[in-house]
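user: can you give me the structure for this one chain? tokens are fine.
assistant: on it. calling the predictor now.
[tool input]
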Amino acid sequence: MEKGLKDKTGKTLEQWIGIVKKQQLEKHSDIMKFLKSEHDFTHGFANFVSLKTREADAGSFDADDLVELQYKGKESLRPIYESILAVAKQFGDDVEVVPKKAAVSLKTGKQFALVQPSTKTRVDLGLKLKGVEPDGRLEGSGPFGAMCTHRVKLSDVNEVDEELTAFLKQAYEASH
């Protein structure tokens, strides 16, 4: 996106950030409107520059910071996340942990799981298990929509048990 911005506009991301900051705009929508109306930006480039200007995109944080922010005020849930990660990493060296703003993706090239602190008392584990009927703890995807086919709600680290490990391993194996 950054290279395309320079190619399309002739200016670097840093130059555009400077231009936006001179306007003293703070809201995402105001920055978007300014870039689109005054500089003929496409929606995608305006969104990119706005997020970078406000340091509101996941790329403006390192992975550790993203996870810290997810669990701020929800510290009691962090052991659930750590336990899920430990289980997933045992499946193979190809497990990639990708923190985003609201959740952490577990991938092997393809996402097979998503760990998200959804409330102050619950972590949701989203899984990609095509063709598997929801049953018991293994619910429909809920708020994950198309990102995952199923969800398991977790409120205690002890719920990261053999059954959950089996669900996670099944999703991991299906991602290959």
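assistant: here you go. Helices lie at 2-9, 13-22, 28-39, 43-53, 63-70, 78-89, 162-174. The first strand starts at residue 96 and ends at 99.
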